[in-house]
Amino acid sequence: MTSIENGSRVRRGRPGHSLDSLLDVAVAVFNERGYDATSMEELATRLGVTKSAIYHHVSSKVELLRLALDRALDALFAVTEEPGATSGPAIDRLEHVVRGSVRVLAAELPFVTLLLRVRGNSPVEQAALQRRRRFDRVVTDLVRAAEEEGDVRPDVDPAITSRLLFGTVNSLTEWYRPDGGLSADDLADALVATTFQGLRARPAPTPPS
């Protein structure tokens, strides 16, 4: 059977491709050309393998999209399950999720970029959007809890605060490049410093004596 790993039997191929490397190339092409405009023939050409070699790993282009979107979403939800996101003051848990989301974006930049371009044009995309909305609700609940604890200014709706926070995080896909000399931690530090300064509740002024 022709397979991506079995380079000796791939007629046109570059040996040694795995499902992960297949996904890397597929996501790069989806981001470059658009998912709908990308054919399996083009993916095979880009990989240097036969289409049957791709079908050894996945059943269709739709499955490639699902795996790619799940990779980004699974990484984001994993952040919400880390100890720093599940215990302590809500404001600290919120900061942990924001920092973790920046790290995910830096580590999985092409996959997150693809996720942010999803518009719900297919059942796979609709499922991804539903998961994104669940993630948004987790963040909104953290903002609301921090507000109730007195650590977040109460004059902005938590849902709006959540959208503003992650609108800023998501905008990083437009310009951030992992090889540009700015680490994910440095990027997270800068984002937290600028956004949380306006987010945190300000102590009431001390009345004059």
TrEMBL record:
Q: What is this protein called?
A: Transcriptional regulator, TetR family
What Gene3D superfamilies does UniProt report for this protein, alphabetically?
Homeodomain-like (1.10.10.60), Tetracycline Repressor, domain 2 (1.10.357.10)
Where along the sequence lies the DNA-binding region? 39-58
Q: Which UniProt keywords apply?
A: DNA-binding, Transcription, Transcription regulation
Query: Matching Pfam families, A to Z?
Result: TetR_C_24 (PF17932), TetR_N (PF00440)
Organism's domain of life?
Bacteria
- Segments passing through the bilayer: none
Q: What organism, scientifically named, is this protein from?
A: Geodermatophilus obscurus (strain ATCC 25078 / DSM 43160 / JCM 3152 / CCUG 61914 / KCC A-0152 / KCTC 9177 / NBRC 13315 / NRRL B-3577 / G-20)
Q: What Gene Ontology molecular function terms does this protein carry?
A: DNA-binding transcription factor activity; transcription cis-regulatory region binding
Query: Which ranges carry the HTH tetR-type domain?
Result: 16-76
